[in-house]
Write a structure and sequence with these properties.
It comes from Wenyingzhuangia marina. The chain is mainly alpha-helical. It has 2 domains: 2-109, no CATH class; 114-155. 90% of the residues lie in helices and 0% in strands. Helix 2 crosses helix 5 (65-95).
């Protein structure tokens, strides 16, 4: 009886064990994480390039701008690959079981999961625009009023 119990415990632990990296990589592929991170990098790179450009003082530095842009693009690809194949895999494997990963893979392969992946950038962009247009001014006004009230209280 003890042997059966021990075997059952072992099997239970094995099923709930951390997900192997291969499974996580499959999930990352189905989630199109490389595409999403690539899109984020595509938005960040022009800002980085603009910042670099504004820091250039001499004509010689400005002439090297094209080389700097190439370096930024190359390093961004390496950065993205390191995140996807390193940190992201490790974090998902740490927090999700094989069963969890399998369910997520199944979801993202479904029609609804595909729709979520397709629409998330649009939804996020729209949400950020609404937040900046509608909510941020109210938020800033409230903070301003509270700080002014705080100043009056300390006078």
């Amino acid at each position: 009886m003890k042997k059966i119990f021990t075997l059952l415990m072992f099997l239970t632990l094995t099923v709930n064990a951390q997900a192997p990296k291969e499974k996580v990589l499959e999930l990352i592929e189905v989630m199109q994480a490389d595409k999403i991170i690539g899109q984020m990098m595509d938005q960040m790179i022009p800002m980085m390039q603009q910042q670099m450009k504004s820091n250039l003082k001499t004509e010689e530095e400005k002439q090297k701008l094209e080389q700097v842009n190439t370096i930024i693009l190359e390093e961004a690809k390496t950065f993205t690959n390191n995140i996807i194949n390193g940190s992201m895999v490790d974090i998902y494997a740490k927090y999700f079981s094989v069963k969890d990963i399998d369910y997520m893979i199944e979801f993202y392969k479904s029609k609804t999961g595909s729709k979520l992946l397709e629409l998330t950038p649009t939804i996020t962009k729209e949400l950020m625009e609404k937040m900046m247009q509608n909510e941020m001014p109210k938020f800033q006004e409230k903070i301003k009023n509270r700080i002014e009230a705080l100043k009056k209280d300390s006078e």
